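The data layer described in this paper is built around a simple, fixed record for each protein. We quote a single record here, exactly as it is kept in our systems:
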Amino acid sequence: DGNVLPASGQSLLNLASVSTENCYKIPEGVQIHILADVVSPLCGHQGATYTFGNQKGRHPTMFAVVDQAIQDFYEKFSPATLEIKGAGAGGGLAGGLCAFAQASIVSGIDTCLDLINFDKKVSDADLVVVGEGRLDSQSFAGKAPIGVAKRTPVGVPVIAICGSLAEDLPPLPFENIQAVFSILEKSEPLEDSLKNASLYLERTAANIGHLLNMCKI
């Protein structure tokens, strides 16, 4: 009936049509590129809600409802967005920009590495060290450390230093990473880990340095 729905996720389930009349118009000639390395689609069990819902505070019991609401919205407004690889990045923000601002998604890590001329700089490196807060299966979905490791030439060893290690990691080596080190030596409260992160990192780096010196790397 042309009624405006309240601004809530629940309203998406009652949506009949979408109007962009009051949306900001992108100036002619302006192109928006989204730097993202997450390859999650917008919807489905590999999509934005199921992948990022927990860390955004959404209770798992609501995943199916939220996912369906997003699906319904884009089926009415921009069905093609549902097929875009990476549209689920940023909790679905990438998909929204693609649909409303005609943005395109490009590899964030590759773009950044190109900007700093990484390939030339790493060509004569003896060792590459990458870092990650928590190394887990999601790290393989386009996280920067994995992107750096993949761009490192074969023959240049890559090691990773992280805050914690998940149990779902594949056996080493993986994705060109030869060794992984956690800065935590024992189970500690999160508050303590954050407070002393720099100390733990320095200690771990020193141990790695001594080990490399022993191996003459």
